[in-house]
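Worked example 3 (structure in, sequence out).
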């Protein structure tokens, strides 16, 4: 079975080469047939030129910046593997989750990485403000969409490719709430899901404003609920 790995990249020129090499080494060690899809999400630095110089990857780019959800969708649209997995460029999720997801994918359609499952290991915690906001987001999402998930926003998720392409075709959100949108689309279409505990560490180098991004997140949640009828798969 072939695995397509999608890594959205925004201003990642400094670290993307070393991080991609870590992913390559892991895949080689575990003999995982794969394709690595790097999506430059309209970066302001020279990420485009850097990823185009990395051997044995599929380097995609577009302008202007769309948001993480837009980059993931673009990568999924170009995926040719049997399974597709997307993960953050900073490798905040330990790479062991790749093998664990592959073991589960024959039995489930959608694997959701979780930082709050009982089996999760957090090596470096987020600052208190982000922890509080994250808790509020989880409560709101589970209440609004009648879910029972411990984590919707972890950057690690894996799906059967045919399901991923169907979900991406219905995607309307390009920002951080796209994770919730994917899960909600999956629920509406009775896609089987499994929440996988992961080993994770916070990226203290993140420049995303927790307050500003949270306000946009809640606005997008309302948009998702409003557009429920658009999320059902075509017969």
């Amino acid at each position: 079975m072939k695995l397509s790995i999608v890594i959205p990249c925004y201003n990642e020129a400094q670290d993307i080469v070393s991080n991609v090499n870590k992913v390559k080494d892991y895949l080689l060690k575990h003999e995982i047939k794969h394709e690595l899809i790097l999506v430059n999400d309209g970066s302001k630095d020279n990420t485009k030129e850097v990823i185009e110089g990395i051997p044995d990857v599929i380097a995609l780019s577009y302008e202007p910046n769309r948001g993480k959800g837009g980059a993931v969708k673009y990568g999924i649209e170009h995926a040719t593997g049997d399974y597709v997995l997307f993960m953050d460029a900073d490798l905040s999720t330990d790479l062991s989750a790749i093998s664990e997801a592959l073991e589960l994918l024959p039995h489930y359609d959608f694997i959701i990485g979780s930082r709050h499952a009982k089996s999760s290991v957090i090596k470096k915690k987020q600052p208190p403000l982000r922890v509080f906001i994250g808790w509020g987001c989880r409560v709101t999402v589970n209440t609004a969409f009648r879910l029972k998930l411990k984590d919707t926003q972890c950057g690690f998720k894996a799906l059967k490719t045919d399901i991923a392409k169907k979900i991406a075709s219905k995607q309307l959100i390009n920002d951080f709430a796209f994770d919730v949108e994917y899960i909600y689309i999956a629920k509406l279409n009775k896609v089987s899901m499994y929440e996988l505990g992961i080993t994770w560490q916070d990226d203290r180098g993140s420049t995303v404003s927790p307050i500003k991004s949270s306000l946009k997140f809640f606005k997008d949640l309302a948009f998702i609920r409003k557009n429920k009828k658009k999320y059902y798969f075509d017969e």
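Notes: The domain at 3-231 is CATH 3.90.550.10 (Spore Coat Polysaccharide Biosynthesis Protein SpsA; Chain A). Residues 109 and 192 are 5 Å apart (CA to CA).
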